[in-house]
Amino acid sequence: MEFEAVIGLEVHAELQTKTKMFCACPVVDLTQAPPNSAVCPVCSGMPGALPVINKQAVEFALRVALALDCRIETTSIFARKNYFYPDLPKGYQISQYEHPLAQFGHLNIKTESGEKKIRIQRVHMEEDTGKLTHVINADQTAFSLVDLNRAGVSLLEIVSEPDMNSAEEAGAYAMALREIIRELGVNSGDMEKGVIRFEANVSIRPRGQTNLGTRVEIKNLNTFRGMEKAIRFEVLRQTALVEAGLAVVQETLGWDETAEETTTQRSKEEAHDYRYFPEPDLPPLVVDPTWVALIKSNLPELPQARFKRMHAAYKLGPEETSLLAEDLQISVYFEQTLAADPSLSPKLLANWITGPLFAWQNYSGETFSQIKVQPKELAQLLKYVTNAEINQTTAKIVLEEMLINGEPAAKIIAKHGFQQLRDSAQINSLIRIVLSENPKAVSDFVSGKESLINWFFGQVMLKTRNQVDPAILRAALKDELDLLRQK
Fold first, then answer.
1. Residue 375's pLDDT is what?
2. SS3 136
3. Max Cα-Cα span within the chain
4. Separation of alpha carbons 374 and 18, rounded Å
């Protein structure tokens, strides 16, 4: 029997607010701030401390929900999700349950068989927990350290329907979602800092059936690669169990990156195990439809819409367009360069951005908003290339110097004498010098060794430091060698 995977994702994204979800404590970089330095009675769970909703967090959540085409609920309710864990000081987490902020959205992803619509079940707000550091001493005694700097940080949870059927589709969905929240300015997308975490719900069923199988939840996946590997492993594990006549047990699993296998953490809780009930210290959250409309009107162009527009406008290939459209800074740089010189070929510009400029970005770590070459200066450099005033090789040398010191192309070309040689008399003179210096090669060519024309071409290029128009040189060289043959 052939089985298919059924996958849903719960994505937890940290919102880039200045303060935490329900208090005025600053949101700090956990890798830089001293432990427990951004903590107050509210986020540390002291008795009698009262939470207050962060308006910026609500706005950020609305941006994401609107970008995912969700239905915004005018009234949503915060709830207490009760469970004990050492890094959850109150003994409960303030979240949303029966009445979330938004529901019934969707996100289209690219798959091998075309575009696929993934339904969004809900988008809701909650607070993050603290951070545990587990320590094992040399004598094997163990203890855990608690840092509450992260406790109370604003989180957005985006829950999909089980509409994905492979690890690749789950990865495409997660990456597309990351692009959106980065574009909206609500999350940095920095996976290394754990600002986005995934939980995958995975089950299998006989292909062609519609009933769902028993699912497991894989917790705290924080890389795309790790998430995809965990899903693939779990699909294979469940398939082996079913084929052996055994049952899949509903449970919560972890992912062991070293062993590359899922591990049991606990039996799967149901909603009633958390004893959800409305948060008594917070009133219902009522959002003004006028405010929602204003937020929607200010949403930026999102990556998928930008891809479709740029693909149609510039007639580039899908891969090239994706590279240019997936990051707002890159697409803005591309279009500003074209605006600086409308005669510039989009294909030529795309090649220079995805080639030399991407290479520089990887080397330097600079973003497109930080590099020293302004769009109008790149346009000028490429105009020198299209006008055959300098060749491609020289242009790359010029660009590198522009990236290092920020000087304009014209100044660098003049300083180094990089102008391309196009004078026929000078070119013919250089050809004759090369031929007179290499009589043996000339004799071999006249005797029929045709491939030597390329060697002669290279020798002239060396004498001109690659600053001769290749087309003019090749034509002139052919004429000169044809004359030698006729003698």
1. 97
2. strand
3. 106
4. 31
Cβ atoms 77, 98 nearer than 8 A: yes
Structure tokens at 161: 């329907």
Mean pLDDT of 250-260: 93
pLDDT tens across 422-431, in order? 667 877 888 8
The structure tokens listed for 186 are 């609500």
Give residue-wise pLDDT tens across range 23-54.
999 999 888 899 999 999 999 999 999 999 99
As a whole number of angstroms, the distance between CA 363 and CA 359 comes to 6
Q: What would the mean pLDDT of 138-145 be, rounded to a whole number?
A: 90
d(CA 24, CA 82): 23
φ, ψ (nearest 5 deg) of residue 283: -75, 165
Retrieve residue 72's tokens: 């915004």
Residue with tokens 């059936």: 209
Which amino acid, residue 148?
L
Q: Is-contact 164 170, C-beta < 8 A?
A: yes
**pLDDT tens by residue, 264-307:** 987 766 767 889 999 999 999 999 999 999 999 999 999 999 99
Q: Which pTM does this prediction carry?
A: 0.80
Q: Reduced to 3 DSSP states, what percent helix, strand and coil does the chain have, rounded to the nearest 5? A: 40, 20, 35
Cα 269 to Cα 241, 266, 367: the distances in Å are 22, 8, 44
Query: Under a CB-based contact definition with an 8 Å cutoff, are residues 15 and 155 in contact?
Result: yes
Q: What domains appear along the chain, each with residue ranges and CATH number?
A: 3-295 (no CATH), 301-416 (no CATH), 424-486 (1.10.10.410)
